[in-house]
Automatic annotation (TrEMBL):
GO terms for molecular function: Wnt receptor activity; Wnt-protein binding. One of its GO terms (biological process) is non-canonical Wnt signaling pathway. SUPFAM superfamilies: Frizzled cysteine-rich domain. Signal peptide: none annotated. Keywords: Developmental protein, Disulfide bond. CDD domains: CRD_FZ. InterPro entries: Frizzled/SFRP, Frizzled_dom, Frizzled_dom_sf. Disulfide bonds join 92-130, 123-147, 176-237, 184-230. It comes from Biomphalaria glabrata (Bloodfluke planorb). GO terms for cellular component: plasma membrane. Residues 41-161, 171-327 form the FZ domain. This is Frizzled-4-like.
Length: 330
């Protein structure tokens, strides 16, 4: 073999070795990915949780990114969590929020230390409770959510499960009840309806979620922000036209309260609040988008009607009733 052939052979051998190393690295990375979560660096510092689905609703306040899905910002986490929001609000499991928030926004326990992810038991409880409801909605438990790849609670290095309460198959609608939400005291409407459009029916849980908007309220970005938020989280029960009843002893007509339940803010109010407050929210949350629950396409316009019926002799109501409300004139 001459010198040129030897050099050419050595080049091919070295090139093949490099190629094999690249392929091996690729296969190893695919193996790690196929086994659920990616390995991440423990470097970095804690940062406050800003994502609305988790902010103030889990038992820790700071996280560390990137997470094991490779999300480096809370904006990326926000979009990754969006499909799961309806199932959290519907309450299929008391552990679903803890599991999802812990998975995407792991609990920071110190700088340059591995954050805590959900325990395997937290994952299993959420999966068992929610997979049937998800299946009914043609929604599958993610293949990336592998409970067996998470640490057991006995490790004391993971987010432990909550005790599951009694599962309610159907939520009873309470057409008009006293609104006791702390943020909503002092607004013109003192009664509201639950569950809301997101199937949230517990005022104490709703109050916890609403607290994350307190900083936004403090900016005074819109005089109608409080009225809007309260109507979203606990739709108003408002006074309608007086009905008439002849149930007294003398068979005389009496006025009877005729309350209209589930009245939400009009889209025009929503758009006004969004225009005035979305930039402040973006600033306060480190760049997160306006929460999906508050998107204005969800609300009817002031020209849209819910009840369409003819004059009724028993109620004396003529025409249509609107399903949304605008700010009352000063």
């Amino acid at each position: 073999m001459d010198v040129s052939q030897s050099a050419n052979h050595k080049y091919k051998h070295d090139h093949l070795s490099i190629y094999c190393v690249i392929i091996a690295c690729f296969l190893f990375s695919q193996y790690r990915a196929s086994n659920g979560l990616l390995e991440t660096s423990y470097d970095g510092t804690c940062e406050p949780i800003q994502v609305a689905m988790c902010n103030g609703l889990v038992n820790y306040n700071t996280t560390k990114l990137p997470n094991k899905f490779g999300h480096a910002t809370q904006d990326q986490v926000y979009w990754a969590l969006q499909p799961w929001w309806p199932f959290i609000d519907a309450g299929c499991s008391d552990n679903l929020r803890n599991f999802l928030c812990g998975l995407f926004l792991p609990k920071c326990v110190g700088n340059n230390v591995e954050p805590h992810y959900p325990c395997a038991e937290t994952c299993k409880k959420a999966k068992v409770r929610c997979k049937k409801q998800m299946r009914m909605q043609s929604f599958k438990w993610s293949k990336d959510f592998r409970c067996g790849k998470l640490l057991p609670k006995d490790s004391h290095r993971c987010i432990k499960p909550e005790r599951e309460g009694k599962k309610k198959q159907n939520k009873e609608y309470n057409l008009c009840q006293k609104n006791t939400l702390p943020m909503c005291q002092g607004i013109p409407f003192t009664f509201g309806s639950l569950p809301n459009a997101y199937l949230q029916g517990d005022q104490s849980e709703i109050a916890k979620e609403m607290r994350q908007y307190q900083a936004l309220l403090s900016t005074r970005c819109s005089e109608n922000l409080k009225l809007f938020l309260c109507g979203v989280y606990m739709p108003y029960c408002i006074e309608g036209p007086k009905a008439h009843s002849a149930n007294n002893a003398n068979n005389e007509l009496q006025d009877v309260d005729n309350k209209i339940p589930f009245v939400v803010p009009c889209r025009e109010m929503c758009q006004e609040v969004y225009d005035q407050c979305s930039k402040e929210y973006h600033k306060l949350t480190g760049g997160l988008p306006w929460p999906a629950k508050l998107h204005c396409h969800r609300f009817p316009t002031s020209l849209e009607y819910h009840y369409k019926h003819r004059t009724n002799a028993s109620t004396g109501v003529n025409g249509d009733r609107m399903t949304c409300t605008m700010p009352l004139p000063n």
